[in-house]
Amino acid sequence: MGSKTTSSTTGPATPATGDETTTTAIRIAGASKVYGSGQNALVALDGVDLTIAPGRFVSVIGPSGCGKSTLLRMIANLERPDAGEVEIFGASPDAACEAKLIGFVPQSPALLPWLNVLQNVTLPHRVNRAAERKRSRAASASPRSVPDLEQLLDDVGLKDAMHKLPAELSGGMQQRTAIVRALGLQPEVLLMDEPFSALDEFTREALQEQLLDLWDEIATTVVFVTHSVTEAVRLSDTVVVMAPRPGRIVDVVDIDLPRPRSAELLKTPEFHHFEDLIRDRLQAAWRSPELPNAA
Amino acid sequence: MMTALDTFRRATATTTPATALASDGTAPTAAIASPADAATPRPRRLPTVLRPSRWLPLTVTLVALGLLWQLGAETMPYLLPPLADIGETLAGNPGFYLANAWVTLQESLLGLAIAFVASSILAIAISEVPMVKRAVMPIAVVLNVTPLVAIAPALVVAFGFGPEPKLIVTAIICFFPILINVSVGLRSVPAAVLQFYRTIKASRLELLWNIRIPNALPYLFAALKIVFPLSIVGAVVAEMFAPGASEGLGTTISLASSNNKLPVIYASIFILALMGSALLGLVTAVERRVLHWHDTHSGEQK
Ligand SMILES: Nc1ncnc2c1ncn2[C@@H]1O[C@H](COP(=O)(O)OP(=O)(O)OP(=O)(O)O)[C@@H](O)[C@H]1O
Ligand SMILES: [Mg+2]
What we know:
heterodimer, A: 295 residues, alpha/beta, Rossmann fold, 6-stranded mixed beta sheet, 9 helices, 9 strands, 20% strand, globular, B: 302 residues, mainly alpha, MetI-like fold, 81% helix, disordered C terminus, binds adenosine-5'-triphosphate, binds magnesium ion, transport (chain A)
């Protein structure tokens, strides 16, 4: 809760106060999504409610097929809810994208193979230039300075790789590039879909640490989809537990651990307590999949 | 592999244990290769093209083919001219062949250029507007399966003996491969890339210019490798059906065949083959430079 102590001094994400619509970063109300129809209809999301305050780091965890990616895509305006609504700083996801308020990190790095690392992270700034004006008009945003992308790449250890092509990078370096590409936009909302799932344990932990450092500086709202309980507990202020068939939220757990969360913290009993808690909830969700027990 | 390595270790262990130790860390292939090195001191590395393993197979094939040809020429003089005769014709009148080759080359390149511009524009239209695809694609397919040799005479009748029918035939033959490949290339951007750029609302034009077109380049070059040699086929076929036309290697061939001048026919064919190979080489070289980022090259160069 009151755990995030070091952030929100430098970042632009601090919302303009006084305007009541801006006190939530993301508001999802009764959102449903059905794929297919008739016999083949698959309820990917069923009446999902979720409210996320600005500057929070929220992880979404749940068994495969429970609709985590669908939920994320819905916030990113890549999918429209069949029922219910999604708001980002009081505006529609479409308007949020229009103003470049959203930074999206897909599961695969999705870099352009003909551009080097630096070009890959600068291209997003060269498209949709009208966004700047819309952004300053958008409910939340304070004007942002053009970020120093080279500095950002340096921060994540990509200084020497700046002029290399994606094919010349390791998987971890590619994923870091994708994160810088999204963070370089200084998004109000950073959406990440299992960004580290293809990486080995060691790289994964290093990137988690870098992500936390960056987040401390940029202080943006994060929705982070993951399969890993440890990862969710380490990174998040709040962990959202989902269950499948139909896809729904079964639990919301606040992680009351101090920040910064070093590697040491992972060994403490407090940390294990939260890990066990989440694991229990996940198992409960898995055992009684057909019971729509609360959101 | 293990046995070879073991033998090597035993062999080297007594004399130079240090080498044996070092070889543990290196790849087994290196270890296996080493004894041979010891026997015959390794010659300085030749450039790849000069290594016998590179040029010898082709040379052997060429010599064999040449011998077969000569044999054929002696037994069936009315089917195959002796190689010496072909060489003589070429050497005797190089200006004539060069001038005609130049005409054919111009026709094929111009026809190709027309096809390139038209099919690229159409490919973009098809990829951006599904309606255009539905309207145009069936016709393009029909055009592609229509035998070109059947169209050529009709075009000659319609457009006379000038350059027009040649350009049209060449353009038609080159059109379809470019159209198909480029429109596939424009549409095969990975979904995750599109998703990212959609979340920042890149416009269609921005997507097209920054992502779709570069993504289509490997597909375009694949098409060009087919189409550059094909353009010569188109030009020659059209020339052969317009025998009144004064120039071009196709014309030269059809005139020579009515006069039974076998060496001239084969000399022309030889030049056409050379021209096609040169164009193919040119495209490949340009592709290497433009698509240095593309995987197929790291694969090919292995
Ligand atoms: N485009 C689509 N068309 C049809 N069904 C889909 C589509 N996208 C997702 N689904 C279905 O919706 C359900 C939820 O999918 P989603 O990708 O959101 O799951 P997930 O929680 O992200 O799973 P994972 O952890 O495996 O990534 C799945 O059953 C999936 O089969
Ligand atoms: Mg998913």
